[in-house]
């Protein structure tokens, strides 16, 4: 379902344009990985997410990558139980991506990528391009990215699309090496989305004058989103380092949010990496959001019960362990084990004031 897809975060442009986290450095030339993630929460949602990816050198200055992932979803959420059809649903989403990195010069890399997401009621095609350049002293690295996506939204079993949307995004990041022990990251992003942004499954109750009516969700046909952020990577003492970041996001619907993330990383032995992190998000809701619309006989032009547009607060904790196995045929074999718990407190949401989610994943990796 469209609403569930937003909940588990499948939209590619949000990850590209609005998540301002430091990039990974020291990436291996060739890397193959496959794994599975399991998600469950207290709102009746379970997701099994298998994924596989590969990145290989196609030449001295060219690397190509490809990946596949799926979401096997089973849900009996509050939204489903209060909809016209109260039966739980099952759905499978398939996704694929491909990319290429080309070293234009010793300190300049151009990257391009394509991503496809397909489900019974949703189709998304996305393109992206980015340019990364390090200054001669290698104390500064600049990254600029552009992306675009076309989404087609429909209803399960209905061959005609309900609506379409186009998204364009741009972002920039500046990494500054302060010393051999500290790096600062600064960034900003803007995203413009236009078209159909409602969920075709979501209905809103409007009450008043002793009666009530159920109406389809109605949100604006245009949305501008903005984000700025900064972070610090600090090697306190070998083999321990920390990361801390702050991110401010806002849009022209009235949403305003603050995210603080802190993580500690320990490399106790060659090939090992243990990470523990925590995150807090506090968000103000959209101006037209209301937990209960009581305006009859007047009908509100804009109306939604999307919890992501409500004022809310969330906390997350995560543990991640990278484990080396052996070296075989020139490849370093290893595994990555991850577990996370996320708690959400939604305000002005009578149907679901709280939700707790749990995630666990195992990934097998071969790289050289």
Topology:
Layout: H1 2-7, H2 12-18, E1 31-41, E2 45-57, E3 62-75, H3 78-81, E4 89-105, E5 108-119, E6 122-134, E7 140-153, E8 163-179, E9 182-195, E10 203-208, E11 211-216, E12 222-237, E13 240-251, E14 256-266, E15 273-284, E16 312-328, E17 331-346, E18 354-367
Antiparallel strand pairs: 1-2, 1-18, 2-3, 3-4, 4-5, 5-6, 6-7, 7-8, 8-9, 9-12, 10-11, 12-13, 13-14, 14-15, 15-16, 16-17, 17-18
Main sheet strand line-up: 1-2-3-4-5-6-7-8-9-12-13-14-15-16-17-18
> What percent of residues adopt helix (DSSP H or I)?
under 10%
CATH topology: Porin
- The total domain count is 1
End-to-end Cα distance: 40 Å
So, the CATH homologous superfamily?
Answer: monomeric porin ompg
What characterizes the major β-sheet?
16 strands, antiparallel, barrel
| Helix-strand sequence | HHEEEHEEEEEEEEEEEEEEE
What gross morphology would you assign? globular
- Looking at the overall shape, the CATH architecture is Beta Barrel
Number of beta strands: 18
Mean pLDDT, to the nearest integer, reads: 89
**How many DSSP helices?**
3
- Poorly predicted regions are 1-27
| Top CATH class | Mainly Beta
- Hey, roughly how much beta strand do the residues contain? over 45%
**What's the Cα radius of gyration?**
22 Å
